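Example 9 (inverse folding). The structure is encoded as follows.
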C-alpha cells in the first residue's frame, strides 16, 4: 500500500505511519485551501479533505491523507478549543476522523481570537520554536501524556478505518 500525506510535517507523517505501519508513506507538500489557522470545524475538515485530495492527485498513491489542526469556539463548555481532523481518500470515497479536543487557556485563546496562529503563540509563550513539529499544543496541555503524533494518529485511524478490514463497506464519499 502506498499512501501520500498532504504535508511535509514530520509529526503528521509519523501519525500516518503509526496507523498503517506496513504502508510506504510519502510526504507531499500541498496547500490546504484554507487559512493557516483554520477557524471552526467546517474550515478544519475542509482543509483536511483538500489536503487528502491534493496528495492523492499529486502522487500515484492508493490513498491520500490530509490532516488539519484548527480552533473552534464552543458554547458548552464555553471556550476556544483546539480541534484535529483527518481525511482519507482513495479517489472515489472519502472518510473522516477527529482527534481529541482541548480547551485553550484564556490568555492563549485571546491572542488566537485576535488573529494570531496557535503555533506561533505557543512558541512565543513557551520560548520555543516549531512546537507544531514536536509535541504540539496537545502535548503541552496534557503535560506530555498525549503527544501531537498520538492525537493525530487517533484522527487518522478514524479516517482510515472505513478503508481497512470490515469497515470498508461504510466509507462515505
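The amino acid assigned to each position is listed next.
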Amino acid at each position: 500500500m502506498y499512501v501520500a500525506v498532504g504535508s511535509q510535517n514530520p509529526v503528521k507523517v509519523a501519525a500516518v505511519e503509526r496507523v498503517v505501519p506496513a504502508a510506504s508513506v510519502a510526504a507531499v507538500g500541498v496547500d490546504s485551501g484554507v487559512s493557516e489557522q483554520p477557524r471552526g470545524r467546517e474550515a478544519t475538515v475542509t482543509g483536511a479533505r483538500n489536503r487528502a485530495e491534493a496528495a492523492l492527485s499529486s502522487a500515484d498513491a492508493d490513498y491520500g491523507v490530509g490532516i488539519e489542526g484548527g480552533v473552534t469556539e464552543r458554547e458548552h463548555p464555553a471556550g476556544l478549543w483546539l480541534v484535529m481532523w483527518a481525511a482519507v481518500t482513495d479517489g472515489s470515497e472519502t472518510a473522516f476522523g477527529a482527534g481529541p479536543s482541548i480547551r485553550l487557556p484564556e490568555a492563549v485563546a485571546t491572542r488566537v481570537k485576535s488573529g494570531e496562529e496557535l503555533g506561533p503563540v505557543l512558541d512565543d509563550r513557551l520560548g520555543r520554536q516549531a512546537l507544531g513539529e514536536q509535541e504540539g499544543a496537545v502535548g503541552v496541555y496534557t503535560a506530555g501524556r498525549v503527544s501531537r503524533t498520538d492525537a493525530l494518529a487517533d484522527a487518522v485511524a478514524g479516517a482510515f478505518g472505513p478503508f481497512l478490514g470490515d469497515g470498508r463497506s461504510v466509507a462515505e464519499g
